[in-house]
Inverse folding.
């Protein structure tokens, strides 16, 4: 059974079930107009049958007011239908409806019962009929608001029972008992129906919750599958999904390009400062890319490689400018706790064209462009073109022929001397590889060394060249050193370095006469393994030269951590030294840096007397370049040394 508290609760509109209240109001709003309509009809009907018997105010004035009130309520409900209201307003409307149900039903019932005293037994029967029909009709209409139908039942049944019981008419008394019995039955039935409705709504809510949870779960799965946890950007899969979507979209939606950004100098950050620092840099890169605006979507493809989809550019020049701007953003130092790291980025771009619809092919093209971006200089953007494709095809041809070549026979070394201006003599020579292919003819080393790296023969090639060099160099004057170039792949493979050391050792060469040239970019490739290689070479007793200085990251902070003996200033600076004050300042800084770090400084690519004079004034004494010596084959180089002798003066004049 119900407790008193339960009974009170029947008249309350719950405040903790907004969805339920909203559903109730929604259901009610379709029935209220119906309810007021038949209430109005009933009132008019009762007034009409009593008009000949009761005073005019009982059959015209009072019912007129009732009809007016009902009409106003009806109009109000109709006007408010479909209007969006908040949970608080919903509850207030349900409360008002319940209160009005109590008041209006009580007042209508009292009016109807007051008419009992007039008229005939027929009109009296009409009054009882009015009460019962009103109770039944209203109860059905108000079924959705328990508080309202309970209030309505109380509002009608209580005054009706009292009036009928006190009237003294036995028939009316029996009717009162009947009305109470029927009302209780109706109340119980409605409470049950109402409960079922509530459950239905709640199960709907649960369904809604389940749907929301499922949506949340699928979003989480999407994130897991498509988002890079470190940077918050899309991951490789997300990038490819997006790319496929872009390719499937309308091709007329404006120019779109794909880009691959590769960070230069990221590996050493990881190696030197640790993975947390590396992660921080990647996060910052992610932020910088994300901040570049709506015309670009960035994704992390893995490691320090990022994929880009660019739109909204005008033409190819504009696209390159956008790429360069991204590269510049990567050059802004990354501030860490108490230090900062400097990096750069290279970008390969490819514009979408109707003839390429495969994502893989686009990525391959962007990759090729990236490869060229990396070759042309650190931190630049290159757009894929047909000319580039031609060069790629060419280089692929070079690779094929290189793989088939008889390296032992076709490869040779030329030597370019290094001049010491202080003592006016040649102090050493750099060994430069030459490939005279029977099919392709002479191929420049800058081309075939890279091809050898790509097709995996570089280790073998380096070893062949090194043996050849040692064989030729063996009988050179003992005060001449020889410098051998190592590729990035050699320096990052300490086991190969060990092999070279053992070859030199077996040959009985004084290791102090051997210099190994490495580039900054090669070292940055894998800082830890490169350092291990350098340590081995130093332990052996050989010297290390940092080649092409100034073209790489020039992160001076790393230079002093390497066991270097000399630095070779790249020849690109020298061609501008007489015309550019900025270049002069850069070269001066490098010369001063070498001076303070006690490193030999060799200036490469000196071609004119004017350049030599200027560099000497700047404090440099060791040079290499066409002014002193063109690269000579082994026999010519040896002949030259014999001819010039150890103390041969002004050798450059003989050779220029
Ligand atoms: P590098 O190590 O910077 O070599 C110097 C290059 O500059 C040589 O080109 C040389 O001929 C050129 N050069 C020297 N003086 C002048 C000058 O006054 N003016 C101009 N315009 N150029 C000058 P080369 O021989 O074509 O070599 C190109 C690059 O190929 C080398 O640059 C080096 O990075 C690579 N390389 C050469 N031989 C080998 C090798 O045996 N192993 C490896 N791994 N790389 C090599
Ligand atoms: Ca070199
Ligand atoms: Ca060089």
């Amino acid at each position: 059974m119900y407790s008193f508290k339960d009974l009170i609760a029947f008249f309350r509109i719950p405040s903790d079930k907004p969805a339920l209240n909203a559903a109730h109001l929604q259901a009610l709003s379709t029935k209220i107009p119906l309810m007021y309509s038949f209430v109005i009809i009933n009132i008019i009907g009762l007034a009409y049958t009593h008009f000949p018997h009761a005073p005019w105010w009982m059959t015209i004035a009072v019912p007129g007011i009732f009809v007016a009130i009902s009409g106003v309520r009806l109009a109000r409900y109709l006007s408010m239908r479909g209007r969006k209201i908040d949970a608080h307003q919903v509850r207030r409307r349900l409360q008002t409806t319940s209160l009005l149900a109590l008041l209006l039903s009580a007042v209508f019932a009292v009016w109807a019962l007051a008419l009992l005293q007039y008229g005939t037994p027929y009109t009296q029967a009409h009054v009882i009929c009015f009460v019962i029909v009103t109770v039944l009709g209203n109860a059905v209409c108000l079924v959705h608001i328990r508080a309202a139908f309970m209030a309505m039942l109380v509002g009608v049944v209580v005054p009706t029972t009292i009036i009928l019981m006190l009237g003294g008419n036995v028939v009316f008394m029996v009717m009162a008992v009947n009305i109470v019995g029927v009302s209780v039955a109706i109340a119980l039935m409605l409470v049950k129906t109402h409960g079922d409705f509530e459950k239905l709504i709640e199960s709907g809510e649960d369904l809604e919750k389940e749907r929301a949870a499922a949506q949340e779960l699928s979003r989480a799965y999407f994130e897991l599958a498509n988002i890079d946890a470190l940077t918050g950007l899309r991951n490789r899969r997300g990038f490819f999904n997006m790319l496929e979507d872009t390719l499937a979209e309308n091709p007329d939606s404006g120019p779109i390009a794909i880009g691959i950004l590769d960070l230069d100098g990221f590996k050493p950050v990881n190696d030197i400062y640790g993975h947390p620092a590396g992660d921080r840099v990647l996060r910052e890169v992610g932020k910088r890319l994300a901040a570049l605006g709506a015309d670009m979507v960035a994704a992390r493809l893995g490691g320090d490689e990022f994929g880009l989809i660019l739109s909204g550019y005008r033409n190819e020049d504009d696209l390159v400018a956008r790429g360069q701007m991204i590269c510049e953003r990567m050059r802004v130092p990354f501030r860490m706790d108490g230090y900062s790291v400097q990096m750069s980025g290279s970008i390969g771009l490819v514009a979408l064209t109707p003839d390429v619809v495969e994502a893989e092919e686009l990525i391959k093209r962007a990759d090729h462009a990236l490869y060229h971006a990396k070759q042309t200089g650190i931190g630049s953007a290159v757009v894929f073109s047909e000319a580039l494709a031609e060069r790629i095809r060419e280089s692929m041809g070079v690779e094929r022929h290189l793989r088939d070549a008889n390296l032992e026979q076709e490869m040779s070394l030329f030597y370019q001397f290094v001049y010491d201006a202080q003592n006016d003599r040649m102090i050493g020579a750099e060994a430069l590889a030459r490939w005279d292919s029977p099919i392709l003819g002479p191929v420049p080393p800058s081309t075939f060394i890279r091809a050898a790296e790509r097709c995996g023969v570089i280790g073998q090639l380096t070893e062949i060249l090194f043996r050849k060099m040692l064989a030729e160099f063996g009988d050179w004057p003992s005060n001449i050193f020889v410098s051998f170039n190592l590729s990035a792949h050699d320096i990052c493979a300490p086991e190969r370095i060990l092999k070279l050391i053992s070859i030199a050792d077996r040959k009985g060469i004084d290791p102090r006469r051997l210099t190994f040239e490495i580039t900054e970019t090669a070292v940055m490739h894998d800082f830890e393994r490169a350092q291990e290689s350098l340590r081995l070479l130093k332990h052996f007793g050989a010297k290390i030269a940092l080649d092409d200085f100034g073209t790489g990251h020039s992160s001076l902070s790393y230079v002093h951590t390497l066991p270097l003996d000399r630095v070779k200033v790249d020849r690109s600076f020298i061609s501008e030294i007489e015309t550019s004050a900025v270049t002069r300042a850069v070269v001066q800084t490098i010369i001063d840096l070498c001076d303070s770090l006690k490193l030999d400084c060799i200036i490469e690519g000196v071609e004119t007397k004017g350049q030599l004079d200027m560099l000497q004034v700047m404090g440099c004494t060791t040079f290499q370049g066409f002014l002193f010596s063109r690269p000579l084959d082994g026999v010519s180089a040896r002949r030259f040394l014999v001819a010039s002798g150890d103390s041969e003066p002004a050798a450059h004049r003989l050779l220029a």
Summary: The chain is about 60% helix and 15% strand.
